[in-house]
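Hey team,

Filing this mostly as a record. A colleague (T.K.) asked me to run one chain through the structure pipeline before their review meeting, and I want the input and output archived in the tracker in case anyone asks later how it was produced. No errors, nothing strange. Just documentation.

Input sequence:
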Amino acid sequence: MAKHLALITIVCLSFVSCDKSEDVDEQTVLIETLNQELVPLSEDPLLWSDSELTFLDELADRSIVALGEATHGTAEFFQAKHRIFRYLAENHGYKVFAFEADFGESILINEAIQSGNCSAIEELMKSKMHFWTWRTEEVLNLLQWMCQYNLSKSDLDKLQYVGFDCQFNTFHPEMLESYLTSLSPSFLPDAEIALAEAKLTSDEGFDNYTDLQFNEFNHKLFKLRNSMNSHEEELIAQSSQKEYDLNLRILDLISQVSKVRYDQANDVLGGLRDQFMAENTSWFLDYYDEKIVTWAHNGHIANDSHYNGGSSMGYHLRNEHGDNYTTIGFLFSKGTFTAVGHDGQQFTSLETQSIDEEPSINSINYIMSKSEPLVFSIEIQDLQKHNEWNNSIDNLVYFQIGSVFIVRPENHYSTFNSSFFDRIIYIENSTATKLLPF
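Output structure:
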């Protein structure tokens, strides 16, 4: 049912004249031009037809298509990304789906997807995945579809599931140690010492490390990388180029995780995590020599030079890849979603949260909630063809949360910027993801 455009009770907005009638006229024009430019979509993302998704065809030559989310717990966002990746895989040859997930855990899950062991995926998700955000029925359905798709494909044509995040060393040290032990290079004893310390710091963190101790540990990793580089031909001859490259990257992940965790232990904000996630995404692009779709929060994929004390992953990727990096952000207005609660100074349980009130009146969410369809896609440049949007868009705010919902929606608005996303998919009503039972 079409949503009404009645705005007679709207108060003065910060981005237009404070004359009430001008406010109404201005927002009415924004809504009317939005309705002219948007691409309507069916309400169930999994039922989006190929004809509804032809707006993706213009992105088909991009090296990286980044898909965001305004919450880590909205089923419709997850289903939409499943459907978009399926469309891009089936119609445009995309083969790699890179998640905001642990690098090492994703190797283990991808092994099942490559081998056709589809029945093992759920248990691997439950036992190996670090983040509750991805341990959901929606992600399980996606990974099982990827596995089923691969059953009829050659190795070169199979879909790959990978993780570019760098917050844990749960699996990396043992993976690299297993590789090196099987080859018995001369530097193995030194490698075992460095990797044993990496295992310990994964369990205990760096809370008790001084700067000197951390630098000494980091130097051991640096020496190990030099050893692998100097023995490259020997290691490749005993394994393969792909195995060597992967394990060298695993060593880089150990270093990345260590630096991120050391900064966290010392309450340092500097954007290292996003920088490393961008580097890992670019590495996957080279490693597979295939186009990539990425899955992460809006904040990470956005082209944002001021994010979490540094710059976003998307900012780094846009700088490196230019227009070959494109972004689709996701927004909503009301409904339920999965998130950790926060009351006062205390975190509460992981549960279904809800928002019933309308979005903030000076938000892009509010304007989009007054559009004709409940679900649609819109290209930001199409909006900016209209003076009203071009003059107003960077003065609007927008709503998004991470894994924690801080009691009230007003705590989660930030300034929108027209450079953040190339396109937005708006879904009026959010439904909470379904967590896998333990």
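Quick notes for T.K.: The chain is about 45% helix and 15% strand. Confidence is low (pLDDT under 50) at residues 1-21.
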